[in-house]
């Protein structure tokens, strides 16, 4: 079975997207322009356009792709990211 790492939402039909989310192959969404990722039910994430949204199977895949945690839905991860960013 091939694991889904990063895919653009605009490349999926609504039905395919629902199946991937339901099966647990997609767990996080990100904003392509802002390089921010978060939970699929995040209010901030729901406002972005389909063309800017990318989807991740894991948090590790989002981080490896250069995305940072959302400050709204992932407060602890965001605080850790910000603390490590300020140290540099």
Please, could you describe this protein's structure?
The protein has a single domain (6-87), classed as 3-Layer(aba) Sandwich (DNA Methylphosphotriester Repair Domain). It starts with 5 loop residues before the first strand and ends with a helix. By secondary structure, it is an alpha+beta fold. The chain has helices at 14-22, 43-46, 59-64, 75-87; strands spanning 6-8, 28-31, 36-39, 53-56, 68-69. It contains 4 helices and 5 strands, in the order βαββαβαβα. The model has no long low-confidence stretch (mean pLDDT 89). The protein is 36% helix and 19% strand. Strand 2 (28-31) and strand 3 (36-39) form a beta hairpin. A 5-stranded mixed β-sheet has the order 1-4-2-3-5. The longest helix is centred in the last third of the chain and has 13 residues, at 75-87. It is elongated, with a radius of gyration of 13 Å.
């Amino acid at each position: 079975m091939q694991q889904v790492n990063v895919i653009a939402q605009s490349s999926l039909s609504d039905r395919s997207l629902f199946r991937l989310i339901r099966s647990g192959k997609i767990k996080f969404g990100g904003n392509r322009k802002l390089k921010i990722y978060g939970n699929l039910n995040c209010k901030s994430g729901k406002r972005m356009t389909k063309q800017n949204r990318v989807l991740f199977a894991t948090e590790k895949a989002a981080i490896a792709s250069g995305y940072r945690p959302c400050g709204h839905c992932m407060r602890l991860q965001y605080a850790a990211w910000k603390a490590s960013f300020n140290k540099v």
